[in-house]
Each structure stands twice: as C-alpha cells, then as structure tokens.
Design brief:
It is a single chain. It is built from nine helices and two strands. Helices cover 41% and strands 2% of the residues. Strands 1-2 form a two-stranded antiparallel sheet. Among the domains are: 55 residues, no CATH class; 68 residues. Helix 4 runs antiparallel to helix 5 and helix 7 crosses helix 9. The termini are far apart.
C-alpha cells in the first residue's frame, strides 16, 4: 500500500510505557535501597517508624465559639464586680474613668469673695446658696450688703442721679451698639428731660441692674451729659 504520491506506508509500532521500572537517576545519585515497587510512607516530624501518629487536639468549631456560654475548659470564667450585671460593663468603664468632681463649700467661697472685695462674685454665690437653701441667713445678709456696695460703686460712676442724660449717638448708629432688650428699652427713655433717678424708676428693673445698665450705656458712649 502507498499514499497518493506513491510512497509506501510505514508500519506503526506500539509503544508500551512501564511505570513499574526504577526512576531515572540524576548524575551522582545512588539507587534507592528500598524494595522495588514499595513507596515510602509519609511521616510527621518526630514520628518513628512503626509508631502511631500522635493525636491532634480536637478543633473547636465556629458554632461552639459563638455560643455565649462556651469557653475552653482551661480558661476560667471572668468575674465582674458586684453590680456590673445590672449596670453593664460599659457603665462600669464610664464610672471608673469619670474624674471625681471636687466638692466646693459655697459658704466658704462666698465669704472669701466678700472678704476680697469681689462683690459681684460674692453676690452670685450668695444667690446660688439662696436658690438651694431658701432663708439662708448669712447668704441673705451678704447678698444685701453686696447689692448696696455695688449700687454705690455704679452710682459714683454716674454722679448725681438728678442729672439728665441725652442720647450720645445718631439714630442710625444705635443698631450697631449690640444692645440687649433691657438696655435698648432704657435708652429709648433717654430724652434729656428725665433724670437718672426717673429713668431707674420707669425701667422696671431692680435698682442695681438699672444702675449697671446706665453705666454700660455711658461707657459705650450711648448716653452723655451736657453739664
């Protein structure tokens, strides 16, 4: 038989692969001493031939790790302080991290401020004491004394209360003074015909507050005196 070109077909031979033969050796490598066809068993490090493989610790599955009460036997349960179960761990941390606020003796603070001549602060502390303990005798006495002294100081800044103030700024400039409602109301009553004493009466404010407001208006130039 031949192909289309007239050349005869070559007879194909069957090739058989034998896997039982010894593996090829690299240059300088000696043949293995183990019997032919016998494969070496894999062993763990430190394992001796003929001994059983060491038992591995039982792995903990994910479900047992997620269960609230599951924990390894070797780890003891954490014990929280008394009352933590009710308040919670977060409340315990916040309570321990919160700095202890110092205790201030308001009575001593009021006495010290008054002795130093800081009548404004002494009056503030006295009013705070009266708000907590109505009828506090010492706080009532000091608050009255502070009001008298502060009224005297503000009155000395204004001079005679019979003086008649006038508005010291233009009408379009009043809006830029930043006055509150009390100062604005008191300034609206200044017309050059009413004395300071009359302005205090019509203000509707406590005498000390009215005097303080008039001093503020004088300092910012909102009112002036012609004399």
């Amino acid at each position: 038989m031949s192909d289309e070109d007239g050349r005869p077909f070559r007879k194909r031979e069957r090739v058989t692969l034998r896997f039982s033969a010894d593996p090829l050796l690299l240059p300088g490598e000696r043949p293995s001493q183990a019997p032919k066809g016998e494969a070496d068993e894999l062993r763990l490090p430190g394992e001796v031939e003929g001994d059983a493989a060491p038992a591995l610790p039982e792995a903990e599955d994910a479900w047992s790790r997620q269960r609230p009460g599951s924990r390894p036997p070797s780890q003891p349960a954490l014990k929280l302080d008394d009352g933590v179960e009710e308040a919670g761990a977060l409340e315990l941390v916040a309570r321990r991290s919160r700095p202890a606020s110092p205790t201030i003796d308001l009575t001593e603070e009021m006495r010290d401020r008054y002795a130093l001549g800081d009548y404004t602060a002494a009056l503030r502390v006295a009013e705070l004491l009266l708000g907590r303990h109505e009828g506090h005798a010492e706080a009532t006495k000091i608050s009255e004394s502070c009001r008298e002294k502060l009224a005297s100081l503000h009155g000395s800044r204004l001079g005679s209360l019979e003086r008649m103030p006038r508005v010291g700024v233009q009408d379009e400039e009043i809006r830029w003074l930043g006055l509150d409602h009390r100062a604005g109301f008191l300034l609206s009553r200044v017309d050059g015909e009413h004395s300071l004493e009359e302005l205090i009466d019509v203000s509707g404010m406590p005498r000390l507050d009215a005097l303080r407001t008039l001093v503020e208006l004088l300092d910012m130039g909102a009112i002036r005196f012609d004399d």
